[in-house]
Design a protein that fits this description.
The complex is a heterotetramer, with two copies of chain A (500 residues) and two copies of chain B (171 residues). Chain A is α+β, with helices and mostly antiparallel strands. Helix content of chain A is 36%, strand content 23%. In chain A, helix 4 packs antiparallel against helix 5 (112-119) and helix 17 (457-487) packs antiparallel against helix 18 (490-498). The longest helix of chain A has 31 residues, at 457-487. The radius of gyration of chain B is 21 Å and the shape is elongated. The chains are: A alpha+beta (500), B mainly beta (171). Chains in contact: A-B, A-C, A-D, B-C, C-D.
Chain lengths: 500, 171, 500, 171
């Protein structure tokens, strides 16, 4: 069943789950999906699913998924109609968007100007402040330890140091006092990618909640607001567990978050799919930033309204209007939606990333949950890339049931060949402070430490039996091998080992 | 056969009839308690799962260079072990589960060295941030496990290295 | 994370997807799931997922999943609290239920008496007729060619011959005229399992639609009706493609179907989950039978109300009442829900069943579809069992989009090692008469014949290139092997073949 | 090298440089038309997928006892083929794609014989229902492919048989 010819073409210079999502969504609306992938990703599921795929010459990030020129060159050569940058990599890169606009290539996103504005977290907060919106107390740009000393003593420690133009949690550090701060600033400023643009500091609220408001705004200025997402539970500033709605904000606070969001995105004339992000501390909200691209957690609002956000994002960025939204529409949540991030890392060894080939992979999908992953039996988890390997969503009317369903779903997953955070996630799901909704930014540091988990006598005894049983069999094999090699009966040997 | 070993610091003695292959349900004694064991799945790489009292457990065995078990993953949960004795047939000297802190630090995974904060010969304190090793898009801060003098720095900034490459050694 | 001890236990003497569904659902409500499986199914996903599992001694059906005594014996030995017979096998067997009731084992289902009544399709129709409900014209029991001759000439051919107590499509035959009918009856009566209970004949409407009404009735007599399912598209009387709601019945007809269903199930005092089945011909409805157990297509109503029907069935059969249903509640469909059956059979070879080991298995799940399957890479599809290996549901507001999503979803599935009906399903989804809703019982015979599909020049040319390329490489390998064996350089040989 | 063969009754001639392995993108000529081919995945069992003009195709090759291709599955679609000629290196005599109807009927899959309606020696007409072979819970009606005399009935009712077991032969 081959189809192609006069289809419109979309180029996808990305990998992993987001690449799969884009391929699947764009195929289903009749586009020809053309993947650009690194040699390292040659056997990825994305390559299997894409209509066509072209290989970068190198797997180095800067020569593949981050290579603006190479990507645009290929786009022109293949005469594609669109580029979807996906998530991460160049998805929020103003320069990439500028170059595309220069070459009249439609790239899905809010455009270079807006990305440039949003990228500078200090400017953005100034805009918010000018609108009278409370923001987290932040410093000016820090490009030297001198700049750091200029931070007024009114700032309360701990402080959090962020690269001015960082993506995700990369490079972010928390410092306890001024002296540690200076040390850290010096260290950070020795890094090329940080030095040029600089750092800024803001007050750190370990007991705060992290809240995101997903929204879509069309060219006429109509806004669709989706239920807020609480993404407080983070490790190394990576979101591990997210839920929507949050159980930690009142209706009045919720309304003010929507109102603040509306004013900011209208002020900067944001068109497309995005997220406003706030910190909530002692019932007060502080605006922190805007995520201007399709995020991992887009699956949450997708479930709330059972719609495909990549298709919506694509339509909006092509100048279409939101369906039956005039002015501002705020979606009320029907379900408690949970999202966990499956990571290839070993919780038992300080969450060190784990790479390798999947020797086994089983799961069982049922109603009321979705498991998006690039894993398959035989797939290679590469050390070159982010250990993020999948996301799982469950939803139910009651939060309690949603948590229970998620735990049950994870219990049905078997992954071998790499270490994952599966059991860690189950541990989090079973913790009391999650059940009670006491989810704050320091959750994993103070409230729920995996290391603390004690194994039961029974568990250890089972492990002991299994270990000796396995070792016992290996020994029998070894002994037979030796014996038989003496006896020089390879035939017998072969017959024997069929059993094992 | 009788196996004596430590598992998660506890001592165990298991007894298995030496002819046992566990390809049919068989009895095993663990510290006197009895249980039934049966192989679930297995392939050339060894056992993949066992039935223990009719419950299926996914197992992955860790072994040292000599092939002696140093740990086991059961349904993804890790247990470190230390084999002490196998009745008359074999005998191994004790191996301590934790070796004393060494000053040698190696990479645990392929990646690249994005920053080094010291030079060879520098004095460093335990916990000092020596270098940043980026792997799977995560910055791993390699710190000094002990105080002392930086005898060797095995990499330079920008190096792409494989797993268990010597990063630095403190003496 | 081991949990057990004082949990209630449920025994599951079944296999495949239904076993997985039961294990998953019952685990999630805190029961200990104990699987009984045949030796043939030892490496099945069900064994991996069940809390505990016990193996039958034989894989012969009558000595395993159909062995009433062995199952009940095990249930007593393990002191289980419940048995869930699942679907097929003993799920509708009055004798099995009677034995369980005798031993006071709670078995999930409507009870032996009711099953006995429903099992006899002639009695059931008489009850319906007495209620003034139109039924398909049917004969009395046929246990000899003499009985067959008694069929009055008022019966219009073609006739359909059914074993009185058959399950699914087994043994059902259509005959064109009286003479063929006699031949066939003689043949059928030579079969042990048919001879004892006999056959009956009914008029056959090739242009009719097959409609099912799923319902749940609790002990207080409250009834929850779900949107009707059209399951007309069948091959060998196996349902291949099903949709809900049907596009072929008017609202007035729909209401009468609900009304007829209500009267029948109230008359026979049905308690539990079931389906009433009707034929629709020229706008008139004819009651045919009741399916008294959880069916493959339960996934459709589950999607309509986003609820787990195994949990509901379990609750009802434990005497709980339907939530917020007083009297009769009829659910209105929000979505066009489609369900296809994935079969291990080769459409290109007269749909002969295909067994073997899955060498590759990829799929990609996204929002708005669910793929339930017992397949995994390395799984064995056994020749001993039904070729049904999975079911896929998609749903969308517009039927058109739902069909498109299904086709797109199927296009992302790769299965190797066995032949499947994937491309056949895609062919059906792309056919015009499906798009126009012209779905009748003879759909696959007259309207949409797979064999007719013509391959494009391009497709054949691609195949030609790939074939010669593959053959070319094999030859090179072969030649090298020969050459090198002469040269006696196994080392070199090994180095060389690393490449392949 | 030059390959001549039939595929779905059409004649094809493909030209491939004899050194080609398709491990890097290479050109292939099909009836004069040019295309690029590259191996996607492969393992000990052979090629699993090809890139053809950068499109990935899943392939499964069917071979006869001598290892010559008799058909190919491309993305699950079947094409029957008949190799005619491989330039100078090899040469095979033509093999007709369809052999003339034989009276020999074998089981295509393991299963059991639930019913036999004739006896050895009976005369049967083409299309007669000879026996019912149940496999994967489906009743497969084994009918006479030709008219003639039932020379052999290779099974009896209740037999459990493997694949390609002789069911009956008509002469």
């Amino acid at each position: 069943m081959i189809k192609n010819s006069t289809k419109k073409k979309i180029l996808i210079p990305n990998r992993g789950v987001i690449a799969l999502d884009i391929i699947d969504s764009m195929k289903s609306i009749g586009l020809e999906t053309i993947l650009l992938h690194s040699p390292e990703d040659s056997n990825s599921l994305a390559v299997k699913m894409a209509c066509r795929s072209y290989k970068f010459l190198s797997s180095k990030l800067e020569d593949s998924y981050m290579d603006r020129e190479a990507i645009i060159e290929k786009a022109l050569e293949l005469d594609v109609d669109y580029i979807h940058p996906g998530y991460g990599f160049l998805a929020e890169d103003p320069e990439f968007f500028r170059l595309c606009e220069e070459k009249n290539i439609e790239v899905v996103g809010p455009g270079s100007k807006l990305l440039k504005l949003v990228e500078n977290k200090i400017e953005l907060r100034q805009i918010a402040e000018d609108l009278g919106i409370r923001v987290i107390k932040y410093s000016g740009v820090i490009k030297s330890s001198l700049d750091f000393e200029k931070i007024p003593p009114t700032f309360n420690y701990p402080l959090i140091l962020k690269p001015l133009k960082g993506l995700g949690g990369k490079g972010i550090k928390v410092v306890e006092d001024r002296q540690k701060g200076e040390e850290r600033v010096n260290k950070m400023l020795q890094r090329e990618w940080i030095k040029n643009t600089g750092i800024f500091a803001e007050e750190y609220f370990p007991e705060a909640h992290n809240i995101e408001i997903p929204f879509i705004r069309d060219i006429d200025g109509n806004i669709l607001f989706l239920p807020e997402i609480e993404s407080s539970i983070q490790r190394r500033f990576q979101k591990i567990f997210q839920e929507s709605p949050s159980v930690n904000i009142s209706d009045t606070l919720r309304e003010s978050l929507y109102e603040d969001s509306r004013r900011i995105i209208e002020e900067i004339k944001f068109v497309g799919l995005g997220y406003t992000e706030f910190l909530i501390s002692n019932g007060a909200s502080y605006f922190s930033e805007i995520n201007p691209s399709y995020q991992i957690n887009a699956l949450i609002p997708e479930v709330h309204i059972i719609a495909n956000f990549l298709k919506k994002q694509f339509a909006i960025s092509n100048g279409e209007l939101l369906h039956d939204v005039k002015g501002v529409k705020i979606v009320k949540p029907k379900y408690s939606v949970l999202l966990v991030s499956l990571m290839a890392e070993n919780p038992l060894d300080n969450f060190q990333p784990s790479s390798g080939v999947l020797s086994e992979f089983f799961k069982y999908s049922t109603i009321r949950n979705i498991f998006k992953t690039s894993l398959y039996t035989g797939a290679k988890v590469s050390p070159l890339y982010d250990p993020y390997i999948g996301k799982i969503v469950t939803f139910a009317i009651k939060r309690k049931n949603s948590i229970n369903d998620m735990n049950n779903f994870l219990s049905n997953i078997i992954i071998k060949g790499i270490r994952t955070n599966l059991n860690f996630l189950r541990f989090v799901l079973e913790s009391n402070c999650l059940a009670s909704g006491d989810t704050t930014i320091n959750f994993l540091n103070n409230k729920c430490r995996f290391a603390d988990r004690k194994k039961s006598e029974e568990e250890i005894q089972v492990a002991a039996s299994l270990l000796s049983a396995a070792f016992h069999i290996d020994n029998r094999k070894k002994n037979y091998k030796e014996k038989l090699e003496h006896m020089k009966q390879p035939g017998f040997l072969r017959r024997l080992f069929k059993k094992f | 056969m009788k196996y004596k070993f430590q598992l998660d610091k506890k001592n165990f003695e298991t007894i298995i009839a030496s002819s046992t292959t566990f390809h049919s349900e068989t009895e095993i004694k663990v510290n006197k308690a009895k249980a039934s064991i049966l192989i679930g799945e297995y392939d050339d790489n060894g056992i993949k799962s066992f039935f223990y009292n009719n419950r299926l457990y996914q197992v992955e065995i860790e072994k040292d260079s000599e092939g002696y078990p140093t740990g086991i993953y059961v349904n993804g949960e890790h247990y470190s072990s230390n084999l002490l004795k196998i009745d008359k047939l074999f005998y191994y000297k004790d191996k301590p589960v934790v070796t004393k802190k060494s000053g040698i630090v190696k990479s645990f995974i392929p990646g690249n060295i994005v920053k080094i904060f010291f030079n060879e010969g520098d004095k460093v304190k335990e916990g000092d941030l020596i270098m940043i090793h980026e792997a799977m898009k995560m910055e791993n801060e390699m710190r000094a496990p002990v105080s002392g003098k930086l005898k060797i720095i095995g990499v330079k900034e920008g190096d792409n290295i494989l797993a268990s490459h010597l990063l630095f050694e403190i003496e």
